[in-house]
Design goal:
Four copies of one chain form a homotetramer.
Chain A (H helix, E strand, L loop, with lengths): L1 H5 L7 E6 L4 H14 L26 E7 L5 H10 L5 H6 L1 H8 L2 E3 L10 H19 L3 E6 L14 H11 L3 E4 L12 H7 L2 E4 L6 H14 L3 E11 L1 H7 L2 H19 L7 E5 L6 E11 L5 E11 H21 L4 E2 L17 H16 L3
Parallel strand pairs in A: 1-2, 1-4, 2-3, 4-5, 5-6, 6-11, 7-8
Antiparallel strand pairs in A: 7-9, 9-10
């Protein structure tokens, strides 16, 4: 739809290569970007569309071109219908962006490795990188950002190469900036530290901060600033969708929980008592509920309690952050910035450095937006 | 107890004159200050005892001398026992500070006006001011801060002089700095604007931020920073104690709710749908429960919900803020600062200017702490 | 749709005349009945479709014919689409039952009195009764039940005739059994006691028990059975839709809250502290949230707390109860039963006698089901 | 205290032998019974003191004599002081019943087996039984009930004899009725089925229903009666105290969770999705919080949610049930009843048969109370 009305000059296109391109998050990213570019919806939840970023030189939503890898064969238009039936996407919108969904779907290449794939790591990396390079050439985008939105992997055995790290290696090889929106290893594989540093590419991660940890990033500083003594912070997460099933595996949950704990340790100066559980509740579909229970001591040791209940739609929470990150990292690449971007801690549970309180992370993000807009 | 071990030189004493000196908050302030000065408890919840204020030149807790006005005759030691029975104060502590409670109790003067009191406003102000001046003279304190911690008054009819404003006028007359910890009018009476400006005294207010609004001051900025569209913010407060009974009066609640709404309007740019209720639930004693329900739109208009439940002890939440404010305003007075102090918005629902997000209020407070510590 | 496949013999049809026939509840009733009769959905939430009622001789869902009064002109098919957009009705279902919605819509007559209507009470009653009689004649139904599902009225001034009582009087005049699903006066008008008793018709009410009071009807007995001492029971209701707006009027809410309190008083033996608030939150659409906070004393007076949060869709909660009641009361009419039916307390906040604990109400309902099935 | 004022005739005394006699529950049982017998507190939470049981012939509270086994050496008066500091017991009460606590403490014998104890199972059982017999002889009680209130054990390996089963065997050997208030094996050991049946003694269990499962026993029937389709029921329990630590062991939690699941399966006809977690949160002391999240489908499949939060004091919840059970089972023994008592399912998560809905369990309990009171 927007191709006819807003077609940007060829050189001004930016590619977004989604690893997990047929998942709920990716589907929402593609459908939502098309809807916003066509003016069908206000840009709620897209931080990069707020006034503060007007001068940052970010690629326009209408200039983003999507492709990606996935092991699933379910076409994006069908995935969008499923999400509409669950109340994740508005019905009318899904119908209106069928063309864009089909176009992106045509640019999705088979992911892997699937069982029986005989290729070794180097071959897989080379294959994935070739797909990315072909995407860049074929679409004429000026550059592309690879974003991992695939299901969370178990923490890999030492030395093993999980799929997320193969894709990350392929991104480096193809000259693409990289964003890891999941708690999977991605670029954190020890074998990628050298190549990442040498690549001259910007990258950011990991694990998008979409619910419980977002709350913790404002509540933990509050307790600290008021000199309240947090004794225990317990949490329960109920997730349907694919993520619930992945994270019901304790090994996969371990990666996610480490990120959740970090914000508490950083803000409070110590890790309080309490555990975090992640339960698979298929009946919730793409929705999730997070309950937090905080026991704290006030003046003279008086014991008090705060509880929070967050009920959100996982894809609707994640998709705008993915679009923000793709735009910011693409622009950073354009501006010649490289290496990890601690300025993007606002988006992550387990960021590459920077402050852990949301207010400070937001200030850092605003400053980054200004920096990106500076003349070359 | 601490009088023997830490007795400061006479000139180094600071007076704290509590309006509502036999209420739960005042009792907790006096008992808690004595306990902390004597080293019986860590200084949890006292922001002015954190490292950041070590160089601010604040009066030591052991140098604070308490007095005040109240219309009640129940002696402080007995009030402390009642609070201990409710679990507000630790039993052992109450026993250990009987001496300090009795000493403060002896410095409490009759408040007013009670029904049948024939004095006019000028006479009442003069009488209250005389009490304050006598307190300063009699205790040899270098200066005193008057802090209003009395029950919330109904919003007064235009032109009427509520008791809180009479006390505030008396503070100005007696040369005392002033803090309004309640939503009552206090210095906000139009007839006091001139005298306050002319007094050369520092003052701060109003309405201590101890629960629901504290949370709103971190959560509303979070929604704003994430570009989420808050559609409705509803709240229910259940309070026992005297405040529950006062605020069950819709006229009194109106003052309090105005403060609660302000943080939302300031942070979100618009007042969302939803109401705030304050219910008197005597069975809760000094405890309070605040439930908040926030409906917000995310990406593509997806409707989501956050709920918070805050269960706290009103006096234990308020008392450390009162001590913080008394110390900060006394030091400001000592340093020759005058007028409203927007730097103290961290403590108030309805502050005298300054930012409304807690993180920015905290930064302003830290900067104020540094300023107070600078050499003359 | 089902008219072709399941057409029952003319004498076997049963009429359901909905007062408020274009509201959300009525729309859901008509659409849902058609969907279930056509086998498009399982009969979740329809108690009369459970095995216990198989022998009760209730009219089949496929034999129900709908009509009604409304002052709104919005056609039912359009109202159903609006509800589908809000997630209240499944999209596919709405499309599948367009025919039945249009057929029912054609049987809706103008309600009243609207401003400017010059008819007096007797004329209005006669007009409404004529509409009902014409419906019965025109459709060939064996009998009809009038069900009030209109917006809640304010408690009327003494002696005044609210619209709900005019419709109730018309039902008696037209020889129709009557169900009051709202807290409005309906048959409770003092002027209708005699006519109701003389009519030989069965009737039931009032105020469907769809959320907070349903929970209270099981929780209050639990506290009583365990000899726990409930000190305070506070509640907040957030409603969008029309009902939120109606009940934000304190006069309308008064009627509803009286019903809510009754279950507590009956089960606990005394009315505990605490209030109930009903807030209009348009952003919630047809959804509602009820928060309850119960303070209770246990052994040796230990104070404890239970909180419940009920998040439901008002129309989806109400519609199956309306269908249940229409079937049960129609069958009672067929069996010659007359007068108030305390056996239906299971469905109401403020029933016509009978027990107040849900378990006992359910037992009474099952017994009623058996009685209805007995041979004549 | 009451020994002087209410001393019953020797033959009318009833013994209560607590396994885990120095735990929080046992301490609360002994202190609370003394306080109630002395008229210091109303009998809140004691079902057997309600009017319905006035004619059941239950032993008076003033006729109960306590003893027991424990491996801890901390004396009961000191344990009571600790509980008072946590707000579990009122301070004044603890002081008033020092005599009764000390008297019970003197009747506590060493439990076991501790590490290094060389006795085999038969010797341990014989030793425990000898302690019980000596208690009966020494105090002159007419009979005694053994109640297991010790920490929950891990599910034992097949064929192994956990301590709870050794104590249960000792009870049979000593001719004492038996109540298992915990999820531990107790009489459920396969080797005890024969002896239990042959003993002619009444017994009851297991796992006291004090919070989350109590709620589920009224809420699950509500969903069933309304024909609502429960899709998922998830729960999180935060416990301090000894039980939190015991149940953080997944093997111990397994026993408890089996009981919790049973009420859902029985009431709903199927086990819904969802898990139950039990976390050790030492900061909560003797308090516990249970959060439940229920996803259910209503009419036309509309997805809705109920959440409950139960904040209670474990000992205050358990102690009155222990007193109830001791009295009921002692009276059953007196009346010559033997074997498992399904009439006591009201008290247990995992009862010996009988209905699973609380309302039906309460009816069964009332009928049992009448039966107990019948003339011989």
């Amino acid at each position: 739809m927007f191709l006819h009305t807003h077609t940007p000059p060829a050189g001004a296109l930016t590619g977004v290569w989604l690893v997990g391109a047929r998942g709920s998050v990716a589907t929402t990213v593609v459908a939502g970007c098309a809807a916003l570019a066509a003016g069908l919806h206000p840009s709620t939840a897209l931080v990069t569309e707020t006034a503060a970023f007007a001068g940052s030189g970010l690629p326009a939503l209408s200039s983003l071109v999507f492709g990606g890898h996935d092991t699933s064969l379910a076409p994006l238009p069908k995935r969008a219908e499923e999400l509409a039936a669950q109340g994740v996407l508005p019905h009318r919108l899904t119908a209106a962006v069928q063309g864009e969904l089909a176009a992106a779907d045509a640019r999705i290449r088979p992911g892997g490795p699937l069982p029986g794939d005989g290729r070794d790591h180097a071959e897989l990396i080379a294959g994935f990188a070739a797909d990315m390079e072909e995407f860049v050439r074929g679409t004429g985008v000026a550059r592309a950002v690879v974003v991992n939105v695939a299901s969370t992997e178990p923490v890999p055995a030492e030395g093993a190469w999980p799929a997320s790290s193969l894709y990350a290696a392929a991104a480096l090889k193809a000259g693409c900036a990289y964003v890891n929106f999941t708690p999977s290893a991605g670029l954190h594989h020890p074998g990628l530290a050298g190549p990442a540093a040498a690549s001259g590419l910007p990258y950011a991660g990991r694990d998008g901060k979409t619910g419980q940890t977002l709350l913790r990033a404002v509540l933990a500083p509050m307790f600290h600033q008021r000199a309240l003594d947090v004794r225990a912070w317990s949490g329960s997460n109920l997730l349907g969708g694919g993520d619930g099933a992945s994270l019901a595996d304790p090994a996969a949950a371990a990666a996610k929980n480490a990120g959740k704990e970090r914000v508490l340790a950083d803000s409070l100066g110590a890790v309080p008592q309490g555990e975090v559980h992640i339960d698979d509740v298929p009946a919730l579909g793409d929705w999730k509920t997070a309950w937090d229970h905080v026991v704290f001591d006030g003046f003279l040791g008086t014991r008090m309690v705060l509880q929070t209940i967050w009920q959100g739609c996982d894809s609707a929470l994640a998709a705008p952050l993915v679009l923000d990150l793709a735009r910011l990292v693409a622009r950073a690449h354009e501006r010649g910035l490289s290496g990890p971007r601690p300025e993007l801690g606002f988006y992550f549970k387990d960021p590459d450095g920077g402050p852990s309180a949301l207010a400070e992370q937001y200030a850092a993000l605003l400053a980054f937006g200004e920096k990106l807009g500076g003349t070359r």
